[in-house]
Amino acid sequence: MHERLSFYVKRDSVIHSLNPLTKVYLTLSLILITFTSPWYWTPHLLVLIAIIPLGLIGKVGVEFFKAAIRLILPAAGFLFLMQAFFQPLGEDVIFKFYFLDVTQESMMFAFRNAMRVFVMVSAFTFLLLTTHPSELMSDLSRRGLPGQFAYVIISTLQILPQMQAKAQTIIAAQRSRGLDTESSFLKRMGLLTPLIGPLVFSSLAEVEERAIAIEARGFTSKRPKTSLHQIPDTKFDSTLRGVLILLVILSIALKLWLS
Amino acid sequence: MFEKIKNNFNTQTWVLIPIAITINIAVGQIVLLLKLPVFLDSIGTVLVAVLCGPWAGALTGALSNMICGMAIDAGAFPWWPVAAMIGYMAGRMAQWGFFKSWWKVVVTGFVVALTAAIVSTPIAVYLFGGITASGSSFITAYLLQTGQGIWSAVVSTSFLTEPVDKITTAMLAFAIIQGLPKRTIGGFPKAEQAAVEGGANKNQLYIAVGVVVVLVLFAALMLRNILGG
Amino acid sequence: MAFVNLQNVTYKYPLTKTPVLQNINLQIQEGEFVSVVGPNGAGKSTLCYTLAGFVPHFFKGEISGSIEVAGMESSKSTLDEWVMNVGLAFQNPFNQISGAKYTVFEEIAFGLENTGVPRDEIKVRVDEAMRLTDITDLADRSPYSLSGGQQQRVALTSILVMQPKLLVLDEPTSQMDPIGTREVFSVIRKLAEGGMTVVMVEHKMEWIANFADRVIALKDGQILLEGKPNEVLTSDVLAENGFGLSRYTSTAREAKKQGLWKKENLPVTLDEAVKGFKK
Which residues of B touch C59 (CB under 8 A)? Predict the structure, then answer.
């Protein structure tokens, strides 16, 4: 029913059939717990007992793995290196890298932070893999999110590929006129205008007509809106959401109690 | 209170925001391609802030980061309050008339940069311990090695890297607004903030450059004093 | 009471000096197919916006005169009410895609969702509208993956599904390739034959001559001439005022000057030209 998008993958799984808001709760809970729980090994544990199992239950294991290799691990890895080398903590120097001291404390600190980022990004990726944006927005709109917000988010997601394609075209056109991304700094600064200008002006010219087009279709109508699709929200969903809220509160409470 | 927020938003605002967000992302990527030492990922945010108002600008910034975090680079996500602040400050400065000539625009860029630096510091410190996955962290690391406290190291880094980026962003946004037909601008809620006063001629540009130099020197001096010399 | 009644309408966009519409007087009956022609800057688009309620409610500016359309009165009705009764489609199909929906079916339903139509009714009306414009096979496609002609038909369907009493079309085929043009015209023809009241701005004279009940020639914000297509489109007034004529008309005009065209009236369409030259 939905065309292939950058992230959403259509599968027949328990996770996919969950209410979108429940999945949002799941993602946010994972993130909040990983950042507030006082226990050092929280993020690592969450990856084992939450992220990977969810990926498997949601039958998106393969896509998730690919995304992990391509996006998440490099980001977390880079952060790990930066923090290990540059965060001056503790005295126990494990080894030296030129003039940089790497201490055990730094390594541990970096490891935890990198894992935290890993959990955060994984949770979001997971959400995106199992939830179609229009379903999420539909559900949120039903719960009171103004239609204009839903419009902005979905519209952005759909125009983004167009804009990137436009940018590619302009870059290609400039390349054929001798644009050199290796040239001097000043030359590259000068390239900003011919690259950005056409992109921006052509996009801005669309605004008036599109505004008229959506007004002609009742965008600013004061009548209560109806929805074409019905998104199910089961007892399981509401129970799960309740449990997640409790877990987050527990995590925050523990942190406050222990500090 | 809500009225003030609502008057930032008409249908054209809602149509502009997605376009502004995609401009943010696309220009950010072009800049990466050109390997320039700036981000320039807030041009769209500033455009919305000037044409529609501070609240619309803040929303654009926040959504921009979130969507960039979802679709392109997850590392962008935690910085959404900074992006929102950039939009808000740019909008306020425009309301106070600071988007009508080149040198005023430079001042706006500078103020926005300082605000961005201030708002991003707690996020950098609390979430990342000061070292983020950005190239500017090398500067922070160096400062830490020389014995500075974490807060002043992070703030100093931002004070150095933000002004160039935000001033350039503001100037580009100004250039874009000048190039738009009156009819296009007229449909937005705060179109009058974008009206250029006098012609923006070469002299004003020189004044603007002069102001940049002054501001940068001022910032450097301020920094020296804060950090205790 | 005329279905559309414009009396002494003068309009100026904000921050401009010259009124784009000057003293327009126009009456249109229900079920009529009226075509508007004119050179660039004549005010055709503004006239469309006026009929659709966007002038003055969207554009602001200064307006005088009375505008009555489908029982609504410009000074008393809001844009919300107006769009329920008047549908508007324009040149650029891409700009008419809302961006809010991922499939054509949902895109067409957008207007009905916004105006609070019950779910079951939405499905019925969208199916019906898609059958009318022959795009049922596009239902699950993304609006962004379509050709220009397909997008324009989706835009038309999105408007038709709201069951407007008046349809205003501003050069709907100007940006189409020949196939797209054919597709769009065939939909418009069906609508016209079905009794829809249509106002269409169009340059393709041969087409207008076959379908319009009346033609309005607009120049510099004023109505220069109006009447039956055959009279208006072959009139000297048009030729003298910088209007483009159909190639058959201009050819026959030249021929007439040289005594080669014997008929009294000039042709607009190929058929008329052929008949005329045969004699």
Answer: 187
